Amino acid sequence: MSKKVVLTREASKNKPWQTYFSQNGYEVMSIPLIKTQPIKINLSREQQETDWLFLTSANAVEYFFTNQYERSNYKIAVIGEKTKEKLAEFGHEPSFVPSIYQSEVFLEEWLNENPEKTSILLPQSNLSRTIIKDTLIEKGYIVFSIELYETIFPEASKKLLTEQLKLNETQIIVFASPSAWKNFYSIAKSFPAQKEKWHIASIGSITTEAILADGWEVKYQPKTFTMKHLADLIIQEELK
């Protein structure tokens, strides 16, 4: 049984899961491998007048509405339970939520419901995938993709992660984004002998694809792509 868990999300998002794992008997380390910060933007008139606003993360919701853009009557589509919850904090309800929190499913279901060409504002991270923008433009939709925030690798975490990996201990390392994985891999690849001791947990298929592409295995991935489902899966499987 691997009783040590390393959480790699942003510090604020790690906190509740540090408590959750600790209550279930785990030693928990928080090593935030990503940090987000807003990018100053000014929306053009065309961008302010789009029919739809697509929000693909809780960070996108927070940074978009914190900028206090005057218009609030966009039709809003979201990906993710936390994205929906964050949207509610700003007093908005989405017009569209996919059945599975994955870009490919989002696109398929939204396109089925919205066959008429329309305009879309898509604020994202500087590292976001381009599949939504590319697919919609290819199908004739007007898409304004803007970089709303940037994702960086905190310097303090680089040192902390290196020290943690040098311990050569069996541990479960949890990833919720390809960005966090890539930052981990940039350091972990220097410790090939310890690779077998690191049990990789991934929150969803896109993160898993990034991990597999680098030649690593994923031990835990929940059927429902939320942190709660991933945490429960780890705890249940480790009891066997």
The count of β-strands is: 9
Please state the structural category: alpha/beta
The end-to-end span amounts to 8 Å
Radius of gyration: 19 Å
The name CATH uses for the topology of the largest domain is Rossmann fold
How much of the sequence is in beta strands? 15-25%
Average pLDDT works out at 93
Low-confidence residue ranges = none
Assembly type: single chain
- Physical arrangement of strands within the biggest beta sheet: 3-7-6-4-5
Largest sheet: 5 strands, mixed
Identify the CATH class of the largest domain. Alpha Beta
- CATH architecture verdict of the largest domain: 3-Layer(aba) Sandwich
Count of separate DSSP helical elements: 10
What does this protein look like?
The chain has 240 residues and is α/β, with parallel strands linked by helices. The protein has two domains: 2-33 and 152-237, Rossmann fold (3-Layer(aba) Sandwich), CATH 3.40.50; 35-150, Rossmann fold (3-Layer(aba) Sandwich), CATH 3.40.50.10090. Helices cover 41% and strands 20% of the residues. The protein contains ten helices and nine strands. It is an enzyme of class 4 (lyase).
Describe, in short, the structure shown:
The protein has 240 residues and is of the alpha/beta class.
